[in-house]
Each structure stands twice: as C-alpha cells, then as structure tokens.
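FAQ

Q: What does a record look like?
A: Structure on top, sequence underneath. For example:
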C-alpha cells in the first residue's frame, strides 16, 4: 500500500529542462515561492502524451495569470524534449519547462516510476509556495488528463490556502459558495 504524499514536502532533485529554446537547470528550489504543477507523462513521441501536453499548453496562460508554473517531466532526456518540440506542432506551442528525468530520480520522488518499463505514470502534482504537495492525481497510461479540471483544482487549493476555516465542495468554481465545517452541517448536506 502506498502512503499518501499529500502535505509532504517535495524531495530534492537536480535536472535539466528544455525551456524556450534553451537547456536550463531545474531543482526543487525553483518550485518554491509560487504555486507549481509537476506534470509527469510516460514518453515523448507517443500518442496520448502530446494531447495532454498540448492541452496544458492551451491553459498555460491562465495558469501563469494564477501565479502557477508548470513543469512537465518524462524519463526522456532534455535533448529528446528539444527534438520533439522541433518536430511536433502540438509540442512546439509549449512555453513551460520540459524536464528530462532519464535516471528516474524525480519520478521515484513522486512515486510514479514504473520500474520495469523505465517510464513514469501520468501523475499530476500541485505544490504550494512552501513546497508542500496539495494535490496528487495518478492515472494509468491509457487515461488522459484535463487541464481545465486541473485549473479548477488549483483555484480551490489557492482559495482554501487563503481562507482559513473554509473548504470547497465538489465541482466548486471561483465565486461559488464554500463551506465552513461545523456541527451544524453534519447530516444536512
């Protein structure tokens, strides 16, 4: 049985990312001080992966406006990320860092490494500015994710972080009512 990593701090790592035409170093320190999404996928030059990364690229401007940085991660190298970026119109529109994790250290840190295949599961992690994991979602390889739903989850996480004593109910959207847990609500919802 896996232990939940919710509310744990991200573990140290050091990697190279392809970002805006350059190779750049990225460590866990880069994720501190802002909201971050670490978005694992199995491999470059595949089928479901480009649909997810393209969907994330389509929502990236909104995420940036929310103060969120996105980091995609696969066990490919940063060189492979560049080649994919150059070869695919979908991947070419990505503006967020694409981290290479060929040793699997980052994938293992987040518990998404498929050891026998050397690939990562589809894992999405939302990290608060203090470096704590607030959302963890892991999918099987054949199940693609929705960036729009991720945006909603981040909005809820950000709301809860700034509104002590309030929680967001299912399908909550910004501007909708929240709940303040109390004995008065028990059995009434």
């Amino acid at each position: 049985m896996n232990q939940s990593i919710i509310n744990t701090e991200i573990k140290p790592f050091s990697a190279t990312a392809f970002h805006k035409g350059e190779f750049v170093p990225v460590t866990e320190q880069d994720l501190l001080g802002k909201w971050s999404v670490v978005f694992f996928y199995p491999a470059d030059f595949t089928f479901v992966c480009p649909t997810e990364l393209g969907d994330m690229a389509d929502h990236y401007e909104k995420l940036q406006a929310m103060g969120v940085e996105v980091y995609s991660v696969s066990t490919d190298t940063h060189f492979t990320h560049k080649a994919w970026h150059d070869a695919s119109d979908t991947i070419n529109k990505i503006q967020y860092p694409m981290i290479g994790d060929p040793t699997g250290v980052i994938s293992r840190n987040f518990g998404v490494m498929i050891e026998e295949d050397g690939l990562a599961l589809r894992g999405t992690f939302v990290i608060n500015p203090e470096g704590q994991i607030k959302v963890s979602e892991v999918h099987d390889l054949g199940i693609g994710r929705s960036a729009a739903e991720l945006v909603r989850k981040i909005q809820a996480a950000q709301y809860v972080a700034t509104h002590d004593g309030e929680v967001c109910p299912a399908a909550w959207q910004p501007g909708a009512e929240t709940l303040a847990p109390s004995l008065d609500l028990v059995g009434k919802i």
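Q: Is there anything notable about this one?
A: The chain is about 30% helix and 25% strand.
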